[in-house]
From TrEMBL:
UniProt-recorded name of the protein: Cytochrome b5 heme-binding domain-containing protein
InterPro entries: Cyt_B5-like_heme/steroid-bd, Cyt_B5-like_heme/steroid_sf, Cyt_B5_heme-BS, Cytochrome_b5
UniProt keyword annotation of Secreted present: no
PANTHER family for this protein: CYTOCHROME B5, CYTOCHROME B5 TYPE B
Length: 138
């Protein structure tokens, strides 16, 4: 390979890396913008729910999910109804509404900012003993 060809290959690689970095930065800026306190929704009531109650909220217009917190292992309930249309993954957010969405939420497709955003949608936790019944239904 002569020096001119090498220079072209290196230049193409630099351009490709620059485009990838710019794309990642744009995605990050969009995710951070979603955390803007001015866009914060009104606080929700924090409650204690049964699996049966959560299961009733299983559609686009009334979408609740259950997620086990990775560190505390507490089962939390989230009302993501207002987030369905904003979800970058489109309809995939609806795959587990009304049930356990832990695996999907902790999937590699979600950036770290997802977990900051989720706090806004937390409406409570599962009632004591419900996690056992819930895990059996899997």
């Amino acid at each position: 390979m002569d020096p001119t060809q090498l220079l072209i290959v290196v230049a193409a690689a630099v351009v490709l890396v620059a485009v990838l970095i710019a794309r990642q930065f744009a995605d990050y800026k969009q995710q951070v913008a979603q955390l803007d306190p001015k866009k914060t929704k009104k606080p929700r009531e924090f409650g204690v729910y049964t699996v049966e109650e959560v299961a009733k909220h299983n559609n686009r217009d009334d979408a609740w999910i259950i997620v086990q917190h990775k560190e505390t292992k507490e089962w939390r309930v989230y009302d993501v109804t207002d987030y369905v249309d904003e979800h970058p993954g489109g309809e995939s957010i609806l795959a587990h509404v009304g049930s356990d969405a832990t695996e999907g939420v902790y999937g590699p497709q979600h950036p770290i900012t997802t977990f900051l955003l989720m706090d806004e949608y937390c409406i409570g936790k599962l009632a004591a003993g419900e996690e056992g019944a819930f895990q059996k239904s899997k």
